[in-house]
Design brief:
Number of strands: 12
Largest sheet: 5 strands, antiparallel
Shape: elongated
Bound molecules: zinc ion
Length: about 250
């Protein structure tokens, strides 16, 4: 299960704050980098299983899925990156580096945890509120889309919070009250179907509708259907009903 370092999956507020913390520290020669940003509920479940119920290794987290700020894109872990390797070393001189990291993080508006050195999160958030869908303000689509897809993915297992409301608005399907009454039909005439100016073969042909194309039937006159080609509820002409199949 791979570690997510895509900063776009973090809430934009922590995204910018973490970026400035890393930049400040790097300028001071302290090689902190984002080790993990967003953490999926399934990865959280995997980490929680470590050291429990016969799974090997030490216990690495107290949080079950949706119980860590990482699942909401509101936390990130900064770890030392030295000679191409991640290092949690806090011995000797390096103890000061981690202290400095916490200090800079606080100054930039992030909250460190005393029992989990690399962890930084947005301050003043409550997990119980996040679980009920009260998300931080100033969200953006890349954060919301990622969170929503993880929520949908984990809904089977239960415990998932509500989907963030920020997702791009789509007009309601009932915005056009007439649309419900419009019947979509497919042209099933092999060689195409004449669209006529009126309900009969004596009316002039306006155009020929391609086989397998779609029309909206908005009225009936005998064996003839009044059709709308564009879905704007305006009549474009008439077709013989026997070559239309409702879909
Ligand atoms: Zn963390």
């Amino acid at each position: 299960m791979s570690v997510d370092r895509n900063m776009q999956h973090l809430h934009p507020t922590i995204r910018t704050r973490v970026a400035s913390v890393v930049s400040i520290l790097n300028k001071e020669g302290l090689p902190f980098k984002v080790f993990e940003g967003y953490r999926s509920p399934s990865r959280q479940a995997y980490l929680f299983s470590k050291g429990r119920n016969g799974v090997a290794g030490p216990i690495v987290t107290r949080a079950r899925p949706w119980q860590s700020m990482h699942q909401y894109g509101c936390a990130a872990d900064l770890v030392l990156r030295e000679n191409g390797r991640w290092s949690w070393d806090d011995s000797g001189q390096k103890r000061k580096w981690w202290k400095r990291m916490h200090k800079v993080a606080k100054a930039e508006g992030l909250e460190p945890l005393s029992w989990e050195m690399p962890h930084l999160q947005l301050p003043d958030l409550s997990l119980s509120e996040l679980r009920r869908g009260y998300y931080p303000e100033n969200a953006d689509e890349s954060w919301a889309n990622n969170l929503a897809s993880e929520i949908y993915r984990s809904q089977r297992d239960g415990g998932a919070p509500p989907v963030p409301s920020l997702l791009p608005d789509r007009p309601s399907l009932n915005d056009n009250p007439d649309e419900e009454q419009m019947v979509r039909s497919k042209v099933i005439a092999r060689t195409g179907l004449n669209l006529r100016a009126g309900p009969g073969v004596n009316f002039p042909t306006l155009s020929v509708l391609q086989p397998n194309s779609f029309v909206y039937v908005i009225g009936q006159e005998g064996d003839w259907s009044q059709v709308d080609l564009e879905g704007d509820n305006l009549a474009d002409g008439y077709c013989h009903s026997s070559y239309l199949r409702q879909v």
